[in-house]
Write a structure and sequence with these properties.
The structure holds 2 protein chains of 2 kinds.
Chain A: H1 2-29, H2 34-39, H3 48-58, H4 64-76, H5 90-125, H6 130-144, H7 147-161, H8 177-211, H9 214-221, H10 226-256, H11 258-264, H12 269-278, H13 282-310
Chain B: H1 3-33, E1 40-45, H2 60-69, E2 74-76, E3 82-84, E4 87-93, E5 96-101, H3 115-126, E6 141-148, E7 151-156, H4 163-167, E8 190-196, E9 200-205, E10 219-224, H5 228-236, E11 242-243, H6 248-256, E12 260-274, H7 284-293, H8 296-304, E13 308-310, H9 325-328, H10 335-345, E14 351-355, H11 361-376, E15 380-384, H12 388-397, E16 402-407, H13 416-421, H14 437-447, H15 452-469, E17 472-485, E18 488-489, E19 510-511
Parallel strand pairs in B: 1-10, 1-11, 14-15, 14-16
Antiparallel strand pairs in B: 2-3, 4-5, 5-7, 6-7, 8-9, 9-10, 11-17, 12-16, 12-17, 13-17, 18-19
Helix pairs in contact in B: 7-10, 8-11, 14-15
The chains are: A mainly alpha, B alpha+beta.
Chain lengths: 316, 512
């Protein structure tokens, strides 16, 4: 077990570095010189010396290979470089932005699990009945609505029409916990509409498959009460695949929550990534992709662990 | 019922009760939480400033912030005229300017503002390798002398009517030489009290500000709302008091809402740039044809929701001191004439590529309208719509035949035309390869002509050349809008090129 974990962790580290390297090199293929873009915001031709000076300042005048090795070297020291836009350490900006996205993902996941798994189970238990049809239909709609449509509609209904919540924004938890949670609610719900539908579908499928298994019939005929059957025999077996899907989705949300963050003005990591790309802020892009890739790999590692706990057969 | 069904009902009942409890809770909370602090002025920025370098151009949102913490010798008043900031009075004699610094002016660290600080700040802009926005424009300064602690004399190499206007922008702030560039210290009406990265910046009044009784509102909060619909929603719900850049499609809504006010003003222009180093736009007749072929009202209607005006003349501010009939009406909508010119030039049926950008709908929509009208007069237009960064790169390298562009001048001075139609190094802001010595001479003449009547005549001559040679094809004025709640008093949007410097006046604003 331990050796398995060590092997997986090592693979994870190598994978992260590989991803970062690919992104590093890919950035140089994208048109648009960062120094030029940075100085062109005014719409005035930046004087050639200014661009040259900025390129030197940003280290862009060095050969690509040199820049790559200095990037790796900094990485070993835990330094993700300095933003081309505002000169601040990329790592500190990420450390400010990342928790905001993480809590958004976490909140959305919790809500989605609470909604998705029980409804999936109910639908599986009552396959073909009305409740199943209604839930499945609702899930299809929920999955097909684009997130920015859901988000914008929610802002319109809850913020503008009914004035129940502020129209997006962010307040630090330390400053105003109640307001913070209130502002977290809307984007989390927006994400969980589609997310819970996915979990619903997955749970329904796996529980339905498990229900037909012999051991469930055996357990019931042994006289074990329904609740015990549910927890020990059905749910445990059904949740493995669900956990995998949840892990993948959470990983996707790390980089993919940009639309939600944009619509609700939630200043998370995805929004930062998009801005960094627009501004050709190479260190910002590299640093963010590296962190996101690492977290994605970590999440999947954890999911694998959970799967192993739930299903001993996988432990070989 | 089986035990399971009992259990599932119990579970769902519990969940239902919990959920409704939470929902009811949220109904109660907002009313408690949204008792706003009425003494904080809340301003919605269109983006979180990418940086706060005092001399660099980092976008409009950054300017709004910088104008609160930094100030220079001069500024703009509510009518957009050059007004006193650090310089209480000043005299100009041709090439010599003498500025008298206010006796009570101190930096935000308490140190008095001296002539040495003024000279040092401008030297930072002019030094080798400077990335300051005005590094080229201020090269007209030949000498700076400190007459005494509070008097600075600046000598220019040639008389330049635009000089005071250059100083009245956010790009020439006076900083403390002692504090240096590591953590620049300025003289603005507000200090930054706190900032939440990517979210908002909190300001509090600087007690030692040189204008007694200002800023009128002691606390200011600037919040970034990148999504324009959300910005408007925040204004409507009262989360903010002022928003910048009201999207055109929402201007009608803000106008009609009784609790809100729309302050609209003409801002930048839309034009077409040409690559004159290749066919067919190396032929002035083809460029002229473009100028006559486009029905500009359609662009205003389609790309700007009716918010704007056709531009048939030099891309100057509407209230420019040299604007006249001769500079305003150089072409008209005349598709027949355009068709004739195309035939004469022998490019009928030729395929041409129009560069625009998918990032900004106003650029993309403008290109669609232009395509339609040019197709109607005998050209075949294909659209090239890369993302903005790539579009800028292509523009800088001349990788286009003709391109849609938004122009903006830093100051309301006709010399802004030099950056657009004068000769110079390659940039996406200028028609690639265009160089007209006659135009350059006229522009240089205009740049240094202090007599208003003579200046006007020079730019009328410029207009004549532009009409024939068409270095760029002006399309429309577009309007810019600020949205306010009715409770905001004393906010004055500045016109044209100065609309981005409306931040000078935030010190005047009070919440009624």
């Amino acid at each position: 077990m331990l050796s398995y974990i060590i092997k997986r962790t090592l693979t994870a580290v190598l994978l992260s570095v590989a991803v970062a390297s690919i992104v590093f090199l890919a950035l140089f293929l994208v048109p648009g010189d960062p120094a030029e873009v940075l100085l062109s915001t005014g719409g005035v031709e930046p004087p050639a010396e200014a661009v040259r000076a900025l390129r030197v300042e940003l280290g862009l005048d060095q050969p690509v290979l040199w820049q790559y090795f200095s990037f790796l070297g900094d990485l070993l020291k835990g330094d993700l470089g300095q933003s081309f836009s505002n000169g601040e350490a990329v790592l500190s900006t990420i450390l400010v932005r990342l928790p905001r996205t993480l809590e958004l993902i976490f909140a959305a996941t919790v809500v989605s699990l609470i909604v998705g798994i029980p409804s999936g189970m109910i639908a599986a238990m009552r396959q073909g009945e009305t409740i199943d049809r209604v839930l499945s239909f609702a899930a299809s709609i929920a999955m097909s609505l684009p997130i920015f449509v859901i988000g914008t509609a929610m802002v319109y209904v809850f913020a503008q029409k009914f004035r129940l919540v502020p129209a997006g924004g962010y307040v630090a938890f330390s400053q105003d916990p109640a307001q913070h949670l209130l502002l977290l609610l809307m984007p989390a719900i927006a994400i969980s509409i589609g997310f819970s539908a996915t979990i619903f579908r997955m749970s329904r499928a796996t529980v339905a498959a498990v229900l037909t298994k012999d051991w469930v019939r055996t357990a019931r005929s042994k006289g074990i009460n329904e609740r015990q059957v549910m927890i020990w025999h059905i749910v445990r077996n059904a949740l493995g695949p669900v956990a995998t899907v949840v892990g993948l989705q959470m990983g996707n949300l790390l980089g993919g929550s940009v639309l939600v963050e944009y619509v609700f003005n939630w200043p998370g990591l995805s929004g930062y990534l998009v801005t960094a790309i627009e501004n050709r802020d190479y260190p910002g892009v590299r640093g963010t992709v590296l962190i996101v890739a690492t977290l994605f790999i970590l999440i999947n590692l954890v999911v694998d662990m959970i799967y192993m706990i739930l299903d001993p057969r996988v432990r070989s | 019922m089986t035990e399971f069904q009992h259990a599932s009902l119990l579970l769902s009942r519990r969940v239902f009760l919990a959920a409704s409890g939470a929902a009811l809770g949220t109904l109660v909370l907002p009313n408690v939480l949204r008792a706003q602090d009425a003494t904080v002025l809340k301003y919605a920025l269109s983006a979180y400033p990418p940086g706060l370098d005092p001399f660099r151009h980092e976008g409009a949102a950054a300017n709004a912030v910088k104008l609160q913490i930094f100030r220079g010798l001069l500024g703009l008043d509510a009518e957009g005229k050059v007004a006193s900031e650090l310089a209480e009075t000043w005299e100009e004699t041709g090439t010599d300017y003498t500025f008298h610094i206010r006796k009570n002016a101190v930096f935000q660290n308490g140190e008095p503002v001296t002539a040495a600080d003024v000279i040092w700040s401008i030297e930072q802009i002019l030094k080798e390798g400077s990335t300051a926005y005005f590094v080229e424009d201020l090269k007209v300064i030949s000498k700076m002398t400190a007459i005494d602690d509070k008097t600075v004399k600046i000598t220019l190499s040639a008389p330049t009517p635009a000089f005071t206007k250059l100083l009245a922008t956010p790009y020439v702030p006076i900083l403390s030489a002692k504090a240096g560039m590591e953590k620049p210290v300025g003289v603005g009406p507000y200090k930054i009290a706190a900032s939440e990265e990517g979210v908002s910046i909190d300001f509090e009044a600087f007690e030692g500000y040189y204008k007694e009784g200002f800023p009128k509102t002691k606390k200011l909060k600037m919040i970034a709302y990148k999504d324009e619909s959300l910005r408007v929603a925040a204004l409507e719900s009262g989360d903010v008091d002022i928003i910048e850049y009201v999207p055109w499609q929402s201007m009608g809504k803000v106008e009609n809402e009784p609790s809100l006010v729309l302050q609209e003003t003409t801002g930048p222009n839309m034009v077409i740039n040409f690559n004159v180093e290749q066919a067919p736009f190396n032929d002035a007749r083809v460029r002229q044809a473009v100028a006559y072929a486009i029905k500009r009202e359609d662009i205003v209607a389609a790309a700007f929701y009716g918010r704007g005006k056709p531009l048939f003349g030099l891309p100057l501010d509407e209230n420019s001191e040299v604007a006249s009939d001769k500079t305003k009406n150089l072409w008209s909508y005349d598709p027949d004439k355009a068709r004739a010119l195309i035939k004469e030039a022998g490019v009928e049926g030729k395929t041409v590529k129009l560069l625009s950008s998918s990032t900004y709908s106003m650029h993309q929509d403008t290109s669609l309208v232009v395509q339609q009208h040019l197709n109607a007069i005998g050209l075949v237009v294909e659209l090239d719509l890369p993302e903005w960064g790539a579009r800028v790169a292509q523009g800088n390298k001349g990788q286009y035949q003709f391109a849609i562009n938004g122009t903006s001048t830093a100051i309301n001075d006709p010399d802004g035309l030099t950056a657009m139609i004068g000769s110079g190094a390659a940039t996406y802001k200028r028609s690639f390869g265009y160089s007209n010595p006659k135009l350059d001479d006229l522009l240089t003449e205009g740049r240094h002509e202090m007599d208003p009547a003579k200046r006007k005549a020079t730019y009328e001559a410029v207009a004549e050349v532009v009409q024939q040679d068409v270095p760029l094809c002006p399309l429309t004025f577009r309007t810019q809008g600020f949205g306010l709640r009715k409770t905001v008093q004393g906010f004055h949007t500045l016109v044209g090129s100065s609309s981005g410097y409306t931040g000078f006046g935030l010190e005047d604003v009070m919440l009624g």
